[in-house]
Amino acid sequence: VHVEGRMPYSSNMTYRVQLISGDESIRAIYKPKDGERPLWDFPPGLHKREAAAYELALAMGIPFIPTTIIRNGPFGEGSFQLYVDAIHEEHYFTLFEKRPELHDRFREIAVFDFVANNTDRKSGHVLIDKQDAIWGIDQGLCFSSQFKLRTVIWEFGGEQINTNLVSAITAIRDNPPCEITNLLSEAEAEALVQRCTW
């Protein structure tokens, strides 16, 4: 792991790094647990929520979160997430206005945010890359056992949820994947099942 530098505007220690194996390397975002600022409403371990969010998106069949794993790094255990080479002038609000063909993906992210209980979906947490793929980043503030959804994606309120998503959510409710629940507390895992039931 080669640290390139600290990411600007981050409240916690967040680094862009290169992961190097022989002649191959890829960029990633590294968020060490020991670099987290204490929060009154979330216990330490936001890096685990980042990884749990990635696993939840996969389980829901909407892989919009870059691959995220937990490993030891230069500053201790943390999450490593593939770096998205995004068009930073664009974000949720600009894309919603200009790109109606992306609205179905935004609908999926809205449902994900409900199921994950995302308390921090900002406009800038929705990225688009140069291949027109939509990505969601910064999912550390998810999975609270208390329901407190905070997201900028409200435009689709009142619509029916896609039946494929309902089926995926029902499967998660009936058999919560251990790839998710092993990263959460018992109360958080129970709350996830409750939100799936809703």
Describe the structure.
With 198 residues, this protein is α+β, with helices and mostly antiparallel strands. The protein is built from 6 helices and 7 strands; from the N terminus they run E-E-E-H-E-E-H-H-E-E-H-H-H. Strand 2 and strand 3 form a beta hairpin. Helix 4 packs antiparallel against helix 6. The longest helix has 14 residues. The radius of gyration is 17 Å and the shape is globular.
Number of strands: 7
The portion of residues forming beta strands comes to 15-25%
Give the mean pLDDT: 96
Query: Taking Cα atoms only, what radius of gyration do you get, to the nearest Å?
Result: 17 Å
* Quaternary structure annotation: single chain
In one word, what is the shape? globular
Total count of helical runs of at least 4 residues: 6
- Main sheet: strands, sense, barrel: 5 strands, antiparallel
Structural class by sheet pairing and helices: alpha+beta
End-to-end separation: 42 Å
N-to-C series of helices and strands: EEEHEEHHEEHHH
What spatial order of strands do you see in the largest sheet? 1-2-3-5-4
Descriptive labels:
single chain; 198 residues; alpha+beta; 5-stranded antiparallel sheet; two-stranded antiparallel ribbon; 20% strand; globular
